[in-house]
Write a structure and sequence with these properties.
Chain lengths: ~325, ~325, ~325, ~325
């Protein structure tokens, strides 16, 4: 592919210079797995970020983060309720079925891949409370959603309260948590609300291959540690993952990078007008455009994914330049 | 721990400079997962190494490599036969049970953690061929073994031939394949014999977090690709893993590094004399020594693991210096 | 419950006198599991029924039959395509997730719980052929469907041909296969078409606790035998299950019983008129009726399940008397 | 086989007349699954038997009973400690791996397949308390053991106390619980001690296909109910299973039958002398005998299993006649 391609996805962007420095700085032998000095600093670093006692584990991918978190909340005979277009349903190759030992995903509706108390109730209520039907043990939502939409603190509160009322645990897929935080302008604790565990994404935001699972209930973290090893995700040179996470937190790099990506997306969105399929609140832009229009953009060197037959998805990353975003915006306007 | 500690394990050593260079060189956005240019070179690079058509997948850990390989060979109602002290039995936190969906490990004996046709037969023969007993679908052996012993080509041939005769697949855990190759002085194809899949270890040998699964039967690789994603091991910036593997192969760095580690181990072993529990053929040295002797060594700054109440394990890595190895040897002699 | 209740479900009816006789006749010690003389006659008996070589296994429940059959066709990383209201999706407590080790159910639409080539294609086509999405390995359909509708031979042919074209296996949930056969008036081989395995239901049709899994591909049966034991479904006194199945086949008792149930349902349906939600082709009748109407029927002693807020389901069994069916029909007419 | 064969196993004996009566008496339609009047009496009936509040579930096989019980106690990343020759390890076709989602069996030693606090400690102590090794979550023992030996109340107390001390749950495989109770002459509560769940066997003791899982902790039973359905073990005509269990309890039929079987075994054992491999405490007799001796016995019409190359196993059932037992005893004496 000869595309400049930087709008395909944030998941293939370069590694941020500060992360590289942290990686290099970790290049002294230490004890293996998660017993090294850097890994042992994670709980504290994330506790500070979320202003409460949390336990944080590194893991290499968002899929592993989501599924290890959910595995601490859902028994094999239970289910996770999530949006019909949630990443765990659409794009994880059946990982939830694997990690949860056959537990089910129960799907709910919602504009922009956002769950609401109404759509959650509509999915939960028809499930009879008997052994013939699979009972929901946890609710998983994505912040920002798969369509780049953000849950406001009051929306999180309503969902949390519903989850508590129904006795189900709450997980947040935060692959783009940083972009949501940048958009909402709230403190991290408000961005995630009162969930039980959060997949705190870094790979799409400047890291190489480290995500954090943040457990707000330490008992869940204890289970997750066993499950991480059992899933082959306990890297022996774990210090290189811890280093990435700490670098992302240092000086709020996670937020700085997300703001840059969001700004680039906003620039592109400014050219969207009536083409916009979803309000742009994070770093993804979904636009109606015909096959011919997409071909025209590609001919100018822009890489992006088709989104069904009549739309396209453009994703900005931490390293998308203002110049490129502006150029794309102009190209869209000229269609 | 104030130990110089470099004999604890090769699994926490530094990353080799050539690997660092390759990582940095990969720091340009490319397509995600394993669709990038580097990942797409792996099949060819490993086919060249093994002088036959193979399919090679990157993965972050040896546990994932072993279990993904075995998952292509063993049905959930089957079993893997391995040595009683195999890493998959002792140290993978139950990962085989997870990846193989409840399949069993059937344990066999053998000096130095080496299987022999006799011990394999002794484990297989009592299993009645009926549904009440779990049937063995694959044999897994470790090269070099958990005690640093190597299978000679003729030993591999005998085991392979037994496996074929019994209709079971063959997997090699090559976490220290390089050390075995360095010791045996054979071409890679002879070091692994006619196995169906090989976990080709790099993390203990200078990489950061990349191992290769080499499939000698491409149909198995097709299954493994789905299972890797499903296990959350398909990293989106896979190019950084591919880069590590290619760097290890470039100029036979894998072999160069292993020779250095083996040489350091040989130096230490030269002081072992009657203390040696196992012939030293790779980079691990197991020595009888009392608690007092171990304390004395530690007091001099040497880090290593106890191996039961009366022994210690010393592991040399690619970056163990000749000087350190010699110093340790002298310290042992002086006990 | 003081209801006469016989329209609640066919799954709680009495055991047919011929089945009782066969059970008693089996009450002489024989070899255990499926090695007894009766179990060994099953393959032949079902081969005769289906006019081709099949392998038949007994099992105690329809859920086990369905899931053991599917487990021979679907890898853990794959999926089963079925109707949105299929029994395996709605009423088996997550058993497919358990037996298939986390494989997924992909849901398709269709009136009366019937799949069509169009709805199957609509469910299959959006699945990208890559590792991020779960691939369909088998198609499962129910004959008669959960709404008592039957697939005609030409409909089966179209679905079979589509399945072959897409490289997926085909399973039929025949919990009410007999009722479909009675309605269609075809030979059994035409009722099931060219599926790979069939759950041949008997419990709803006069047996106590025996269903048959009929494998049209003997290699699948070999796997199923191991999986049946592993699932704790290999009863030691298996002869009592084999006896039930043989009794059902003897003199076409399965067909005789199903005809009786269908006739009773037809009698009830005759009173349905515009209330009928689905054409009545087997032994289930779904009628629109208000809560008040349902209360009125119950007050007259009729037991049945509500079907959502505005409907009711009436099921006739092999032992539903003509008199009772007629009485219910009259009661419905009088509403 | 032309053998009179009644010493092969108690698992293929006839059904007791009282059980037949109870089955026939259940032949009136009732509500399905476990909602019928008979199933709803089980908790009370077993609570009376064990003189404390218990929850009891029917299930068709001992394998399902054992594994469903264990599945409530052991997380997928944990292990069950059992004897090296326990039924769950040797003869259940890998069912524990299936039901426990890949959890491991950790094997311990002990004469006559009996665990002791010493052998349990010897198996537990080497397991490091870290994520690399699989931790034991439950202990399973068999009463009477696979070699027909019985745990005395004080032995149960010692094991229970050890289990509590180590924080592991306790399960008893009571496939031949009745035979142990008959031998020990204790009340049922003493025969099982303070275990968390008991598989209360009936199939080997006069039932057709019903076992009870008795939960001494009701919270475990709630989980088991979901898991039973999910395993396809919730029969729709469950009343026929409940009827069998109630018939076994009625008038202590379970004890009467076991006493008869034990008496027959004692008769056979009386001829054993120095041939006896294990003290005969239940209904199984293991005798040293050569291949020629076994052939001689078989020529006289006695059916039994070889037990390795130099021994044979004879099992008496509830319906073994005194005459047959005496005849076998004489035949053994005459060898």
């Amino acid at each position: 592919m000869a595309f400049r391609m930087q709008f395909l996805s944030d998941n293939a962007a370069a590694v941020h210079p500060h992360v590289w420095q942290a990686l290099k700085a970790a290049d002294t032998a230490d004890t293996p797995y998660d017993t090294d000095a850097l890994s042992r600093r994670l709980d504290e670093a994330f506790s500070e970020l979320f202003e409460r006692e949390v336990a944080a584990l590194w893991v290499a991918t968002g899929t592993a983060a989501n599924c290890l978190a959910l595995a601490t909340m859902v028994q094999p005979h239970g289910a996770v309720l999530c949006h019909r277009e949630a990443h765990i349903e659409m794009d994880e190759g059946g990982a939830p079925g694997f990690y949860l030992h056959g537990a089910k995903l129960v799907l709910a509706e919602g504009d922009g891949a956002k769950l609401t108390p109404e759509t959650v109730r509509a999915a939960l209520d028809p499930i009879r409370d008997d052994v013939h039907q699979v009972q929901v043990h946890a609710l998983s939502l994505t912040q920002a959603t798969e369509y780049g939409r953000c849950y406001r603190p009051e929306e999180m509160a309503a969902l949390t309260s519903l989850a508590r009322e129904r006795g189900v645990k709450l997980h947040m897929d935060g692959a783009r948590f940083a972009n949501a935080a940048a958009y909402l302008g709230c403190v991290p604790a408000e961005v995630c609300g009162d969930v039980d565990a959060l997949s705190f994404g870094c790979v799409k935001n400047g890291a190489m291959n480290a995500e954090a699972i943040v457990f707000f209930d330490p008992a869940l973290a204890d289970v997750a540690r066993y499950r991480r090893k059992r899933a082959g995700h306990l890297q022996s040179k774990g210090r290189y993952l811890a280093a990435q996470l700490l670098a992302m937190l240092e000086g709020d790099l996670w937020l700085v990078n997300a703001r840059a990506a969001n700004a680039a997306a906003a620039e592109i969105a400014s050219a969207g007008g009536r083409r916009l399929l979803h309000q742009v609140e994070a770093n993804e832009v979904f636009l109606r455009c015909t096959a011919a229009e997409r071909a025209a953009l590609r001919a100018q060197g822009y890489g992006f994914y088709d989104w069904g037959p009549d739309a396209a998805r453009f994703v900005a990353a931490w390293d998308t330049t203002e110049k490129d975003a502006r150029a794309l915006a102009r190209a869209i306007e000229s269609l």
